[in-house]
Request: fold
Amino acid sequence: MDKFMASAMVMGVVSALSGQVRAAEGQFRRLPLSEYVDKMKAGWIGQMVGVGWGAPTEFKYNGRIIPEDKMPKWHPRMVNQFGQDDLYVEMTFLRSLELHGLDVSIRQAGIDFANSRYRLWHANRAGRDNLRAGIAPPDSGHPRFNKHADDIDYQIEADFSGLIAPGLPNTVIALGEKFGRLMNYGDGVYGGQFVGGMIAEAFFENDPVKIVRAGLRCIPPDSQYAETVRDVLKWHQECPDDWVKTWKRIDEKYHHNPAYRRFSCSGAKAAFNIDAKINGAYIVVGLLYGERNPDRTIIISTRCGQDSDCNPSNAGGILLTTMGMSSLPAKFTSALDTQGKFSHTPYDFPTLVSVCEKLARQAVAAAGGKTEKDAAGEEVLVIPVQAPRPGKLEQSWQPGPVAESRFTEQERARIVAGRPGEVDLGSVVEQFAPGWKVSHCGQDMDPGLWPEWGGKKKVLVTHPLNQTTGCVLAKTVDVPAGKKTTLRLVVGHHPNGDWLLVVRADGRVLLERTVGKDTAKSGWLAQEVDLTPCAGKSVKLELINQPSGWMCEAGYWAEIKLIVQ
Reply:
């Protein structure tokens, strides 16, 4: 099958975006635009709250329940999750839709994702590596090329599809066939379509059981993922007051039974389990046993363990969509920084809301709906009722044929991220800290001069070249005699990582200090280095962003300054 036939297949699947799916029996549902925006805002807040609350526990409790006293305490400022990959990755997909329209091709979506510069893991990383190597979607997510195809990745990122498609399950399904196949296949894709379908229904329904069943209708009923959801619904019905008992049944079947981990990237017996099915089960457990209480919903999804920040983020996004921004507890919204920019995106919160509203209008119109005004002159979305049309059954352990889809030379020329070599930040560093030079800067996590990050303006972002070679900022300085000279640095770290700050003078180490949550309590560390021992000399200073564990190793520099007293 050549790439043109493959594209035709994908376009056939995503025809819902072109309005080719008819409303069920010609029925429509009406949603005031103001109510849509209110609920859509809450959907994003729910994701931010869930991931922020659960982040300290992520993959620290595998195959076991998080003890109640180990559950982090909520603080209002935790909502500001602008550096979370659980949020900004899906915003890459929003950006493709914003720039190219709802009918953006899967190949263009693949190029945009290939050009992302943030650090990735599992299916996302494998899919993007495939795209950068010229393997075009949908093959980039196919099990022949992607050993993580059943992992959780698109499930984490699919909230956007429901938030821009209120009441439109077929639009959600189509978006999953487009963006989910960049990195996933089979249950890995179904997890995202399930989550997106629940959010789409949450604009009209607040009963968690009905919402879960609505998401279930968006995926093939014969899939193991659908079996997982049905099991959790059944077990909840059998013991509605004991979520721990249901957790144990999930653990026995979907964690310890190899038949349900046939394509587990970590192996069928590993404690670590990033399969979409079991983590999807934990989303459902939070929704069903949370009983519409946001705290309880997020806490239960978190305490289930495994990917215990992503799962409560999904659960929180679904539940809070049903509530609407205007009904949320103040503790979730009072500290929201509306000017904070989501990493690797052009979006702050108001811009994000505006883009989603624009795309929702387009999605409703493309599905055969419209926007009209009511008697009071307020805009109302008139949304066709859709009977969900899930895709055909796929199983990663018995996959169908590949599409033999490859990027053309012209398309590959448009993929500039990930090419061998260093990032050239020379002019950027000169602008930030005149006289300093940069070398060995890697390409991950979007190095450059950011307008804002972590509450500070004009932040220089660097990244190590690889797991052993740090990024170096260097400058030769004359240290005056008879005066105290101090090098002042203000440096920060990604919320999910740390790095080693090394300061050298003519090769001699003056400072080694970890920049992480234990040393930079507010996200930033102010560090002074005494250069008096170098007085009267011309020395080469080197500031090194050295990797310390190869997870979110970016260095954030807010100030580099020499002070002579």
Q: What stands out?
A: Residues 1-24 have pLDDT under 50 and may be disordered.
